[in-house]
């Protein structure tokens, strides 16, 4: 049985939209910093949210419309004492868009910490992101942009030869647009090994009615350990107060989750955090942000892939390294002030995977030895957050075993490309 709600009252409420690890890592941060229990609003219940000590659930049902979710949020607000502030947060792209869609109504009752719709649209498009980076002197990946809305026009470049040797990478410029398209073999990221596979993907996208922009990119070599993650917060008054970067050690490899980090080690990455801060200031960003980067092993160049206009699924790596992400948004939105700039450099190993599995995929002996040393005292798993009950600890074991089976099936050994 789950422990009763925490008696600690910080003087404000926090409502988090969405289920799974996306929301759990956020509610852990607030519980750890303020001893409070958030309210998690979701359509479909997820066991990890049902059993956590860090939040209470409001389940709307799988068929709940956006309007019904809006109404549920307004009803929650009406039940609060007059004048009591509440934060409304989410960590999912579709729900970021939901909040923006109903911003006018929600802002009357909740404090929001995210960019407006115009900037959201720009940043959600990986092609737009690359153009901004180019203007700031931030390295990006060589890319060919194919606009499927122009597929019937003369001179359309969808079937033209790409300027690099295969393999190449393919991905949608806007994941929200791509979310609504279905076709056989659909993936979040495609690893195309030949001209035939390239043309076949173009044909399938056209047949599915896709009308967005699709990116074909030069494959930057390097396995998962060449990837980096940056988490940041920039306040409504224009100050970056939080920066934390980590080296990815192993990502998920199932088709629906390809690219999600599952094990990372934090540390000091000054050039990455400086570039992220420069980008956020240039676009006048507000709220949490998460950058995906890859280091080209041929040149050492930092290639920024995209910005997620949210804190990122695995944000517990920041809190576990000693800096609560919660206190930055609370200071900004609840107390209307900025914290001093914090750059997190403490080393910890964030992992939702068994350490033995992570070590198996590290081919660099020096890195493997380093991770062994960090793991002895710095291993952090959100499912093993100390106040949680026995169910969550058991879940961490079962989840770890399931990951072992998944990797054996879809990524049995590390490769030079991570695919």
UniProtKB/TrEMBL annotation:
PROSITE patterns: ATP_GRASP. The keyword rRNA-binding does not apply. The keyword Ligase applies. InterPro entries: ATP-grasp (IPR011761). GO terms for molecular function: ATP binding; ligase activity; metal ion binding. Keywords: ATP-binding, Ligase, Nucleotide-binding. Residues 130-334 form the ATP-grasp domain. It comes from the Bacteria. This is Carboxylate--amine ligase.
């Amino acid at each position: 049985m789950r422990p009763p709600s925490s008696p600690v009252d910080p003087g404000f409420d926090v409502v988090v939209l969405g289920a799974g690890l996306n929301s759990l890592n956020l509610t852990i941060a607030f519980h750890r910093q303020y001893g409070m229990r958030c309210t998690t609003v979701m359509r479909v219940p997820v066991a990890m949210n049902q059993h956590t000590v860090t939040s209470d659930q409001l389940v709307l049902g799988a068929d709940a419309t956006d309007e019904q979710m809006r109404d549920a949020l307004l009803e929650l607000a009406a039940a609060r004492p007059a004048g009591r502030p509440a934060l409304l947060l989410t960590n999912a792209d579709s729900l970021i868009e939901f909040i923006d869609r109903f911003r006018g109504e929600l802002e009357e009752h909740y404090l929001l910490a995210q960019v407006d719709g115009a900037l959201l649209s720009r940043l959600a498009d990986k092609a737009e992101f690359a153009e901004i980076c180019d203007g700031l002197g931030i390295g990006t990946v060589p890319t060919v942009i194919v606009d499927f809305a122009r597929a019937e026009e003369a001179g359309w470049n969808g079937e033209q030869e790409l300027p690099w040797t295969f393999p190449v990478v393919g991905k949608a410029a806007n994941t929200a647009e791509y979310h609504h398209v279905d076709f056989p073999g659909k993936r979040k990221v495609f690893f195309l090994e030949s001209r035939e596979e390239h043309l076949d993907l173009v044909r399938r996208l056209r047949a599915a009615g896709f009308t967005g922009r699709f990116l074909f990119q030069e494959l930057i070599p390097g396995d998962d350990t060449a990837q980096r993650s940056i988490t940041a917060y920039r306040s409504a008054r224009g100050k970056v107060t939080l920066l934390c970067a980590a080296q990815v050690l192993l990502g998920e490899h199932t088709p629906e989750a390809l690219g999600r980090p599952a094990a990372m080690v934090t540390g000091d990455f000054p050039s990455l955090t400086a570039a992220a801060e420069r980008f956020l200031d240039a676009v006048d960003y507000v709220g949490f942000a998460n950058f995906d980067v890859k280091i080209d092993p041929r040149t050492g160049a930092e290639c920024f892939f995209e910005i997620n206009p949210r804190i990122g699924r695995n944000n517990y790596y920041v809190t576990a390294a000693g800096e609560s992400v919660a206190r930055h948004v609370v200071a900004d939105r609840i107390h209307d002030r900025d914290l001093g700039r914090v750059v997190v450099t403490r080393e910890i190993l964030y992992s939702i995977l068994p350490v033995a599995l992570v070590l198996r995929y590290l081919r660099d002996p020096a890195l493997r030895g380093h991770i062994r040393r960090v793991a002895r005292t710095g291993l952090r798993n959100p499912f093993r957050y100390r106040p949680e009950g026995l169910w969550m600890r058991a879940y961490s074991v079962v989840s770890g075993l399931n990951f072992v089976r998944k990797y054996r099936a879809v990524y049995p050994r590390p490769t030079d490309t991570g695919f």
